[in-house]
Amino acid sequence: MSGNDGPACRFDTFFRCYPAGVLGRGELNYSGIIILPPSALGKLTRLRIAYPMVLELHNVPRQKMTQAGVLEFVAEAKRVYLPYWMMRTLYLKAGELVQIKSTAIPSGSFIKLQPESTSFITAISDPKGVLENALRRFLTLTKGDKFQFLYKGNIFEIAVLDVKPQHQSGGISCLDTDLEVDFAPPLDYVEPPTSLLGGGGVKPFIQESFMAKRIGYDALAATPPSAAGPVISTAKPQPLRLPLGTLFFGYPIEPMKAGSDKAEEKKPSMFSSPGGKTLGDTTNRKRKHKDITGKETKSD
């Protein structure tokens, strides 16, 4: 297919695409620029397309689109060389047709990016500074792109989630503009446990029953134990409460009785005197005998 020129004043031609590595220009894989044939330069010049030239790349059957700048016009006739990430974004394979159109886009003021991996945070000490340097190789970025850049021998992939100002093409120019960059959490990012974030105790995995709700178990379990220290008791001694008329002289120590013949014997009370009678019993018996006889009689 030789190419299909579009409407007047707009470059619109089909090319067969190949990855930049085929041309021996692997460094272009970490940029947003393409290489076109000299014939494309002639058409762009005649159409008075202003520099820097911004081009739309379309995979028509898959309805995928992105945008790019042009680095050189040294490709073979009817061929275009693209960064590898751009071919993936467009779902293109080597040798397939891509439609390229000239376009104009506004200068960007904001872009929201999402790293593919947390290694973007852990392996790079200054992510924003490194990314700012990497973006110098990108003339334009489009919402939905997943571009790549190289840093210390490692390849990092970044997704473009949003751009401002809004444009029908979804793209912005990154050239000579004060671009505000915002980051979304990496795609494989996992929120750390609460204990690591706030230093609090880990909440036990116990199903909360009715009783647990009544006593407020949830709040108690979440309270971290305090540091061990000297125990100081503030409780006061409690009085010994005995039946009326009973005196207490301490707890006697009685040896265990052997044999079953003692089983029927009356067990002495803890308040018994050595004779086996409580002082309370003696007092009560005296009172009872006095009431019957009308006078106090000595009991056995």
Automatic annotation (TrEMBL):
- Indicate whether Membrane appears among the record's keywords: no
Keywords, comma-separated and alphabetical: Ubl conjugation pathway
Matches recorded under Pfam families: UFD1_N1, UFD1_N2
The organism's superkingdom is given as Eukaryota
Which segments constitute the Ubiquitin fusion degradation protein UFD1 N-terminal subdomain domain? 11-106, 108-186
- InterPro entries in the record: Ufd1-like, Ufd1-like_Nn, UFD1_N1, UFD1_N2
- An individual GO BP term: ERAD pathway
Gene3D superfamilies assigned to the protein according to its UniProt record, in alphabetical order: 3.10.330.10, Ubiquitin fusion degradation protein UFD1, N-terminal domain (2.40.40.50)
Q: Which GO terms describe its molecular function?
A: polyubiquitin modification-dependent protein binding
Residue ranges of region Disordered?
258-300
Q: Does the keyword Transmembrane apply?
A: no
> What name goes with this protein?
Ubiquitin fusion degradation protein UFD1-domain-containing protein
Its source organism is Sphaerosporella brunnea
Where is the organism placed in the taxonomic lineage, from the top? Eukaryota, Fungi, Dikarya, Ascomycota, Pezizomycotina
